[in-house]
Amino acid sequence: MRYVFTILVIIHGLIHLLGYVKAFFETDISKQLVGVSKPVGSIWLVTFIMFMVVAIQFLTGKKWFYLGFVGVLVSQTLIILAWQDARFGTIPNIVIFLVSMVAFATYRFNSMVERESNQILQNTKTNNPTVISENDIAYLPEIVQKWMINSRIIGKPIVKTVRLKQLGTLRTNQNNKWMPFKATQYFNTVNPSFVWQTKVFAMPLINLLGRDKFKDNKGEMLIKIVGLVPVVKESDNPEINSSAMLRYLAEICWFPSAVLNEYLSWKTINANSAKATFTYKNQSVSGVFSFNNKGDFVSFETMRYYSSNNNYQLEKWLITINDYKVFHGIKIPSQCKITWKLKDGDFNWLNLEVISMDYNCTETY
Fold first, then answer.
1. Cα gap 96→184, rounded to integer Å
2. Which residues are bridge partners to 277 per DSSP?
3. At 120, which helix (H) or strand (E)?
4. Residue 224 to residue 106: CA distance in whole angstroms
5. What are phi and psi of 132, to 5 degrees?
6. CB-CB contact of 264 with 258 (8 Å)
7. Per-residue pLDDT tens over the stretch 104-118
8. How confident is the model at residue 41 (pLDDT cuts 50, 70, 90)?
9. Could you read off the pLDDT of 54-72 as tens digits, one per residue?
10. Interacting residues of 149 by C-beta distance below 8 A, sequence separation 6+
């Protein structure tokens, strides 16, 4: 569709050359009297140039939509002046305007997320971080110590910031089809926070843009259709705040040295599991981390608020691990399956894979 739109813009632009030709090369004075005088013909030429630039900017990823709006406005004015001959040019103008609107909304959404991501990464000193030793983990439950050793964090710098990329599939209920998505995420482990941004390919020509955020102990969730129409917009309520905290707690598996932060406390449950409590700014959430005999993290389980028919209720939330990868010498879960354990059956709603990971980097992608 990218090239289809580019070709449309180019052809639409080329058609504007006809107005220029009529003004400067047409000898029939009567045709000039219907609105194609030489000054107007010059505007037809300028509009042609604008659409050519729009096509180039669109292909090269520049901010083309501003010029797109101007081009459509000028083009439609010219079409109205020569309505009898040029009225069908309104159709491509409508298409270009709508695509420009979506591009502008997407740009605004991405800019907002970029600002928020920079806010959680800024003022975090990542130079000369503390190197983790076995003495640093000695106070932890034995199975958690085993996880730390198996994750290969001993001898590595403690992680203060994280950035990662994901691919995966999700669905909104059991009967809906799976939708592919891609995502980026940023973490601050000193002042626990994250920003997660996703693009969900819901159907041809229709994407969902989503942002999940946890900062200052407050959660925010925003989902928009093509960046324009909000379908989910929730922030700073007890349910969303708790859910965001639980998400952060579960996702420390991607940066295991976060286990050493004072806002986390641990309690042994049995030889292969431990309960973690995340306490920050007078709020607490808990969940159970389970491991195999080698010390690999295999699952996380907790009670989390599930939204159904605009109502929240606590339900069991389970993350299970399908595979592992090593990033920068640290072994982490790379493929995860997320399931709601509901009363009427399991609802596996999301599967993801971490494809890129960087530690102690304060720049966004």
1. 29
2. 265, 286
3. helix 90-121
4. 10
5. -80, 135
6. yes
7. 999 999 999 999 999
8. confident
9. 999 999 999 999 999 999 9
10. 134, 137, 295
Determine the Cα–Cα distance for residues 272 and 278; give it in Å rounded to an integer.
Answer: 20
Q: Are 19 and 78 in contact (CB under 8 A)?
A: yes
339 Cβ contact partners less than 8 Å away, ≥ 6 residues apart: 317, 318, 319, 320, 346, 347, 348, 349
For CA atoms 121, 124, 125, 126, the dihedral sign is negative
- The verdict on pTM exceeding 0.70 is yes
* Tokens at 215, concatenated: 């900062």
Radius of gyration for the chain, computed over Cα atoms and rounded to the nearest angstrom: 27
Cβ neighbours around 121 below 10 Å, total: 22
Q: With beta carbons less than 8 A apart as the criterion, state whether 323 and 335 touch.
A: yes
DSSP state of 296: -
Element (H, E) at 151: none
Rounded-to-integer distance, Cα 213 and Cα 112, Å: 12
In the 8-state DSSP scheme, what is residue 236?
S
CA distance between the termini of the chain: 25
Report the C-alpha gap between 7 and 100 in whole angstroms.
Answer: 15
The whole-angstrom separation of Cα 35 and Cα 355 is 58
Find where tokens 């390919």 sit.
Answer: 201
Token pair in block for residue 220 = 């925010």
- Are the C-beta atoms of residues 299 and 315 closer than 8 Å to each other? no
Cβ distance 187 to 193 under 8 Å? yes
| CA–CA dist 175, 173 (Å, integer) | 6
Q: What does the alpha-carbon distance between residue 17 and residue 45 come to, in Å, rounded to a whole number?
A: 6
